[in-house]
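Renewal narrative, Specific Aim 1. Our central claim is that a sequence can be written position by position from structural information alone. The example that follows is taken directly from our test logs and has not been curated for this report. It begins with the structure tokens describing the chain, in the order in which they were read.
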């Protein structure tokens, strides 16, 4: 059986890599084009698309940080313990969100 935290870490790293490539492509496209995308009636601007990718990249980096923190907690023996109330986090919650820092009651 695979380790859910390591699988989550690999998924986050892959997402960061893909989004970084996408961002780099958008930057390159905007540098090589002198089009006035701010007035393009066909759709979203390059700047808007770039900001969407930046937001997704920020989210992926936070996800990776959460997984890294969970791995560190596992090393110290307090993985699966709610950081707010100190009670155990339900196995079902950890199965759904391996990097969960709080129990479902505290998350509400």
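The sequence written for that structure reads:
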């Amino acid at each position: 059986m695979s380790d859910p935290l390591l699988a989550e870490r690999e998924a986050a790293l892959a997402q960061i890599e893909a989004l970084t490539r996408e961002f780099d492509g958008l930057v390159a496209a905007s540098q090589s084009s002198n089009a006035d995308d701010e007035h393009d009636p066909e759709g979203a601007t390059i700047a808007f698309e770039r900001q969407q990718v930046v937001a997704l990249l920020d989210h992926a980096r936070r996800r990776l940080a959460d997984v890294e923190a969970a791995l560190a907690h596992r090393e110290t023996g307090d993985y699966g313990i709610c950081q707010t109330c100190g009670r155990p986090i339900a196995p079902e919650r950890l199965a759904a969100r391996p990097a969960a820092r709080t129990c479902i009651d505290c998350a509400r």
